[in-house]
Design brief:
Distance between the termini: 106 Å
Number of helices: 8
Strand content: over 45%
Structural class: alpha+beta
Helix content: 10-25%
């Protein structure tokens, strides 16, 4: 009896295990039908093939963007929690709806959906863009055929990952390299994470963008080398973005007899941009840092050379409520904009500025290093006009230049007025200019 019970239980358990993927597949099919209706109601026309596979379902699908505006609003409403961010996104979409719909409506795509029927793994999807409406407005030539081949050869692909319960987690773009053999132009995109969502935080990265044009028949020679981006976004008051470019190079050459082009060249390297907004004790802080190396701008007559430049602009202790109003304000409404700025000034804040230039050459003029610092506090006030806030300003300013360059500065700047507040230290001259409650400190 006991053996029969064990055997019977084993058969039931084994049968249940075998049936689980079938039940899972049925549940997933029902969810796909629901999701298909939601997408159809929100601007996406999509059709799924029948699933194949037992423990793992693989479905092919194809679709078309019918109403990009409606679909965008649906995605924002579903994924963005911050009401301020939603408002800004919706406003942008509404203002550009005609252009956006023209660019994206009737985009065709196909893809695959891979689902574990036991619900043990994440859901994965691959989407391939087959056609976009702007291609219809371009006449195909030898010079631009590589653009058409991106879609014909199915090179524009995106990977999406969802949790086992169907919640969005990540979308990334597959690496893309395209080269036009006719004009020797190329573009390379690598390691691009379009969006990753985790605990209501959003993260994006661009591992590499590189663009090259080098056509001997063209007036333009352009290089963008290794652009990368890293973005973390929670809302407008909590986010961080870093951007780096190894090199930008641009040459405009006068190859035509009657061209007005003046043989201009531009070069910049190690360009770095950092922006961070965060809260401490309900006060908003904004940090900005920028730097570059080897800036060179040349034309037939003059050149500008800056080997290295660094700067930072930091706002501290901004009022959260006042800044939130400013961010949510329509920038075209000048009256309300001034009102919001005045409110920020009334609440008071700190502003720190730093800049360092290793040297500079402009034509025949050459100067050495420049170091500038400025620490500013605007105390809480109740002024009715923005410029009246100067009366509540405390400011400490310092400028360091090389002694050998003083004569050069005197030719271009009224620096004589500040020499009385300067001191010499080694090979440098240090200028100081301080303000207390809007008045110069003697």
């Amino acid at each position: 009896m006991a053996n029969k019970l064990i055997i019977t239980s084993s058969i039931v358990a084994f049968s249940t295990l075998l049936a689980t993927p079938i039940i899972g597949n049925q549940i997933i099919s029902e969810e796909i039908i629901k999701e298909k209706k939601i997408l159809n109601d929100n601007g996406i026309e999509i059709a799924f093939d029948e699933a194949n596979g037992y423990y793992e379902s693989n479905r092919k699908f194809n679709g078309r963007i019918v109403d990009f505006l409606k679909f965008s609003k649906y995605i924002i409403e579903k994924n963005i929690k911050s009401e301020i961010s939603k408002k800004r996104f919706f406003k942008y979409i509404e203002e550009n709806k005609v252009d956006l719909n023209k660019k994206f409506n009737n985009t065709l795509f196909e893809g695959t959906l891979k689902v574990n029927n036991l619900g043990l793994e994440k859901i994965k999807s691959k989407i391939t863009i087959l056609d976009m409406p702007f291609l219809k407005d371009i006449k195909r030539t030898e010079e631009n055929k590589s653009l058409f081949e991106i879609f014909e050869n199915k090179k524009l692909n995106f990977n999406m990952i969802f949790s086992s319960k169907g919640k969005f987690e990540k979308i990334s773009m597959q690496d893309l390299y395209v080269k036009n053999q006719v004009n020797n132009a190329s573009i390379e995109l690598k390691n691009i994470l379009i969006l990753e969502k985790h605990n209501n935080k959003y993260h994006s990265t661009i591992g590499k963008i590189e663009m090259i044009t080098n056509d001997k028949h063209s007036d333009v020679d352009f290089l963008l080398k290794n652009y990368d981006l890293n973005l973390t976004y929670t809302d407008l008051l909590n986010n961080k973005i870093t951007q780096n470019i190894d090199k930008i190079k641009l040459n405009l050459t006068d190859k035509q007899k009657y061209s007005k082009l003046k043989n201009i060249s531009f070069n910049i390297e190690n360009l770095s941009m950092y922006n961070k907004t965060y809260l401490i004790n309900d006060k908003v802080n904004i940090e900005n840092k920028y730097s570059f190396k080897n800036l060179k701008i040349n034309d037939k007559f003059k050149s500008l050379i800056i080997p290295k430049f660094e700067t930072s602009i930091d706002f501290k202790n901004l009022n959260k409520e006042a800044l939130t109003k400013l961010f949510s304000q329509d920038p075209k409404n000048q009256k309300e904009l001034e009102k919001n700025i005045k409110e920020i000034i009334n609440k008071g804040f700190n502003l720190n500025l730093n800049a360092k230039l290793n040297s500079l050459e402009f034509g025949m003029t050459k100067i050495g290093k420049i170091i500038a610092t400025s620490k500013n506090i605007i105390k809480p006030n109740n002024v009715s006009k923005i410029n009246a806030a100067f009366l509540y300003l405390d400011s400490e300013n310092e400028l360091i230049i090389e002694k050998k360059d003083l004569k050069t500065y005197k030719q271009f700047l009224p620096i004589q007025n500040f020499i009385k507040n300067s001191v010499e230290k080694n090979e440098n001259i240090i200028f100081k200019y301080n303000i207390k409650e809007g008045k110069e400190v003697k």
